Amino acid sequence: MYTNLQETVTLNNGVKMPIMGLGVFKVEDGELVVESVKSAIKNGYRSIDTASFYDNEKGVGQGIKESGVPREELFITTKVWNSDHGYESTLAAFEVSLEKLGLEYLDLYLIHWPVKEKFQETWKALEKLYKDGKVRAIGVSNFNVHHLEDILKDCDVKPVINQVEYHPHLTQTEVKEFCEKNDIRLEAWSPLKKGVLLSEPVIIELAEKYQKSPAQIILRWDIQNGVVTIPKSVKEHRIVENADIFDFHLSEEDMNKISALNINSRSGADPDTFDF
Predict the structure, then answer these.
(1) What is the pTM of this model?
(2) Where is the binding site, in residues?
(3) Per-residue pLDDT tens for 39-81?
(4) Is 29:55 a contact under the CB 8 Å cutoff?
(5) Of 54, 109, 130, 166, which is the active-site residue?
(6) 54 included as an active-site residue
(7) Residue stretches of the annotated binding site for substrate
């Protein structure tokens, strides 16, 4: 199961998405993000995840253009920010993102956070973009179960993805089970908990056992759980190292050891208390 970087999962609308990609949160626009994207693509990555809030879509687009890899071989995700929620404003925000990226279509467009009393209307805009063929798939980010329930009871098109903070300290069991039951794929942001997990004794012990780095152990755990993952790095050697997780397999016992590290601890905001 999952033996190379370009292996895909099939989303609920039939679109195939790479199981692993590059995240660019907090990567400065300009040369840094351009080179990061180019390095990832050169080393076999085919999925790039950005957001309007990251303020680096222009550089991501330039990196894509300079990579030399045909557009149709890539999977590009961006997200609508909280201040752009609403039907017309979401449609406008999408066009701005598309123009900055220099693309004719997106592979995946996400609602970045579930802004109360607004995200349902925003979802209707995403459905229109999907039906108009401007995006191949639509989904959400940072949605808890009750947010997903609100979308599902009133949608024409079901989300394909819920991108959430997910790592061994935050296994999101309830959200993951709900998504699996409803054929919504879970995607992990901050899979390494901003580096905090790299010094976790259990992870270090398993890294020695499998002759891998602590980061590779965690990312392999993600992949074996069927969770799409998008680790961030701007250093080429780290981008390569993060992807070198397809030549080994964690035993069920070791998978369970990692899952047992859960303490429901976040590095980012809680969707239910986030100050929108």
Answers:
(1) 0.97
(2) 112
(3) 999 999 999 999 999 999 999 999 999 999 999 999 999 999 9
(4) yes
(5) 54
(6) yes
(7) 112
